Amino acid sequence: MNLPNSPAAVDFSQPLPLSRNSFGRLVLQKDGSGHVVNPVRAFPLSAPLQGVSLIGEDGKEALWISDLNAVDAAARRLLDEDLAAREFQPLIERIVSVSTFSVPSVWSLETDRGAVNMTLKAEEDIRKLNGRQNLLITSADGVHYKLPDTTKLDKASRKLLERFL
């Protein structure tokens, strides 16, 4: 694949020349040499599969991928692995308890990564995505917790959450 010097569109009919170096970092073969790159989503919440930039160590964009579905399977697997490692967003499965119904409050949660206590600083830290059912909750320490569908929570969890919405 002949990649241009600029991060312009690329013909994805051929495999994307991505691999890992001996340190486990992503390497993009461009202009006959390998460049370590980091994938960054342009719209991680609203369009996670559209707009992924491969950023070089110099901080400049090495390649723009407008749609991850256009990338070959091997490169897609490498990109997905790197993106998953960068995007730590536990999924809330249950709200066990809330310390107080005013903020700041400490929430005891069960997530897909285990039990956790998180502090909600302000009600504005509960962000509604695509309606009232899909939420992103940011804790005081900056961790983003996803709640993709509030209707799938148990009744007690929904009742605790309703006090903050």
Explain what you see.
The protein is mainly beta. 13% of the residues lie in helices and 39% in strands. It contains 2 helices and 11 strands; from the N terminus they run βββββαββββββα. The strands form 3 sheets. It has a 5-stranded antiparallel β-sheet with strand order 1-2-3-4-5, with helices on one face. It has a 3-stranded antiparallel β-sheet with strand order 6-7-8. A hairpin with a 2-residue loop joins strand 2 (26-30) and strand 3. The radius of gyration is 20 Å and the shape is elongated.
What's the helix and strand layout?
Blueprint: E1 18-20, E2 26-30, E3 33-41, E4 50-56, E5 61-67, H1 73-86, E6 92-98, E7 105-111, E8 114-120, E9 126-129, E10 134-138, E11 144-147, H2 155-162
Antiparallel strand pairs: 1-2, 2-3, 3-4, 4-5, 6-7, 7-8, 9-10, 10-11
Overall mean pLDDT = 87
Number of helices: 2
Strand order of the largest sheet: 1-2-3-4-5
Let me know the largest β-sheet: 5 strands, antiparallel
Order of helices and strands: EEEEEHEEEEEEH
Oligomer description = single chain
Relative strand content? 35-45%
